[in-house]
Family 2 glycosyl transferase
Amino acid sequence: MKEDTVCAVVVTYNRKELLLECLEALRRQTRPIDAIYLIDNSSTDGTPEFLLEKGYIKELPPPKLLKPWEKIFIIHDAMSEKRIKFHYVRMPKNVGGAGGFYEGVKRAYSMGYTWLWLMDDDAEPAPNALEKLLEALDSLNLEEISAIASSVVEYNKINLYTRGYLDFDNPFPLIQKPAPYEVYKHKVSEIDFASFVGILIHRDAISKIGFPKKEFFIYHDDVEYCIRLKQVGKIYLVPGSVIKHKGALKKQELPTRKFFGKMFYRIPYRELWRTYYGIRNLTYLGKIYSNSKFKFIIRLLKKYLLSLVSIILFDDHKITRIYFISSAYLDGLMEIFDNKKPKRILYGRESQ
């Protein structure tokens, strides 16, 4: 029987130094990977030139693209010198993490790879991360599996919110519930979802459910995809496989305001555009998958009203912020995916 092949799918945007650390970690795996699909979301920081300098690609993409540009290059595993196919895809515009993973999964699936290992450009898998994932398969029924996932470590501790369970009875404001520390004491545990930082997905599951939802742009596209993955198979956490996640923003770095003894994190106006996608996408997920539409609407209204009050009390640009937040909730309910809207509302421009 032909040996399973593993292709890493990495999405990058303007983080070339972190990207290099990710790619180097993939080349140092104790179980060598077979291929890498790198989706470059039209980075503006010189990512193609950097990859050329570091020997990952042999030619630069054209300066102006009307459609994705893909070339296959050959790199080598750092430990065994095994050949690794390096698929470099330069997108003509930034389609967000969701669009990038859609493109990467679609292309890697079409190439026939057995397992797709999804991760952001700020992920750094431990040298034995892939080996530990594949070893875990020996104790599982492969025919029942959609995906398996590594532990995610941020700031030297496990990020519990990246793996866990789905609560369809209370799907708003957050449909996902973190797995407790106890789960990480087991060799393998079944879970409901895993972020796109170190999730290994089998092609048979992809053949049944399709590709990630590119319309989400950023945030919670991984949760939506895991909901579909769970419909056709099981997802397992393998705590012994570890991936370091380096680009996450600490809440402590955000400005805070206190009201009635409760701390409210405030987002600067220049960074506010990102929050639209989280609100819209979670509202959409709650509407689609909630077991109780009445409970969902009540919880949504409470969260929305709290947002309005906090804007009035604490924030600048109050009218624009209220319109912006209202649009995010309404678009989620109406299933409107206009990914240029956030910057258009806030700054009068549509570029991502």
